[in-house]
Amino acid sequence: MGLSQKQLGIQAGMDEFVASARMNQYERGIHTPDFKTVLALSAVLKVPTAFLFCVEDDLADKILQWVKTE
Predict the structure, then answer these.
(1) Cβ-count burial of 8 within 10 angstroms (0-12 exposed, 13-18 middle, 19+ buried)?
(2) Does the pTM of the predicted model rise above 0.85?
(3) Which pLDDT score, from 0 to 100, does residue 67 have?
(4) Cα 29–chain centre separation
(5) Cα–Cα distance measured from residue 8 to residue 14, given in angstroms and rounded to the nearest whole number
(6) Residues 6 or more apart in contact with residue 12 via CB below 8 angstroms
(7) Which of 9, 16, 33, 49 lies most in the core, judged by the most C-beta atoms within 10 Å?
(8) pLDDT value at position 52?
(9) Helix or strand or coil: residue 4?
(10) Cβ-contact 38, 20 below 8 angstroms
(11) Mean pLDDT of successive 10-residue stretches along the chain, which has 70 residues
C-alpha cells in the first residue's frame, strides 16, 4: 500500500512516537500484536485477518484471491 511502518502504525491507532518501532518489532517477530491491533492492521491494509496469520505464501495468495472475487 506504500505506507511506511510509522504511517501504518499511526493509521492502526498507535501513538506516532512508537508506531515505527512497534511495527518493526512485529515484522521481525520480536513481539506479536494483540488481536485488537491485528483487526486494526487488517482494516488499514484492507486484507482479512486470516491473511496476517498465514505462514504459507500459497494460502495467503488464495485468501487474497478469494477476497477479490467477492
Answers:
(1) buried
(2) yes
(3) 87
(4) 13
(5) 9
(6) 19, 37, 40, 41, 43, 44
(7) 9
(8) 94
(9) coil
(10) no
(11) 95 97 96 97 96 95 89
